[in-house]
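The instructor's notes for this session suggest beginning with a concrete chain rather than abstract definitions. Hand out the sequence below and ask the class to guess, before any prediction is shown, which regions might be ordered.
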Amino acid sequence: MTVLSIVGCNILQDEIIWLIANDSQIKRILIVANGNISEFTEKLDEQHICYDIVPFEKLPKALNNIDKDELTVVVNLMELGLHAAPKILKSEVYQNIREMIPFSNGILIFYGLCGNVLGEVEEDFCLVKNGCTVRILRDDERVVDDCIGATVGGGANYLKLLKTHSKEPAFFFTPMYASSWRELLNINKLHSNPEKALEMVKMINDLAGYSRVAKVNTSLTYVKDIDEKNRGIRKTVWIQYI
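After discussion, reveal the predicted structure:
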């Protein structure tokens, strides 16, 4: 039995789905039961991908019943709001890695640097820990900066995009970012007046020089009604990245 575990940011769920849908070696998918998976499982259903939802504490028992020749993927999606506190994000990711190592042959961390707190995760877990290889998303040179850097293929491509749009700075939105930006910024969760909080976010973006939102076309179509989700944010443009 080979078990590949994924500890992933919810904002990269579309990329995880694409990998699952296009890897014929995967025979079974287990999804850790938590409050972050409803959108993810709906998309899997739309793609007619079979999976089982398993509470974390029952994963070892569930894996005992799997054929030893199967490649099984365990998906553990993390809460988006963790980004508001990078130290807590690191703590939660590291804790989940520790708990998944005993039943995993490999763990793929679907994050980037994320506030420069995850850049040494491979070293911290010695790359191979107790027979389990731990890897994070990288380009040819280093860990990717964030979800945008991961989506466009790494730091060099990301820098090229930033330079291309330097005259009129843009805040880059992938389809999942467009779908989740309120949750990512904790607009509704942390503030008693979400509309006032939204105006504050807009003011901060103005001070930072962002004049528009650039919607990055990832060629993944799992998120619907992207324009509606972006309505009222900023002037938007499409950037097709291949």
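Then share the key points. The chain has eleven helices and ten strands. The longest strand covers residues 2-9.
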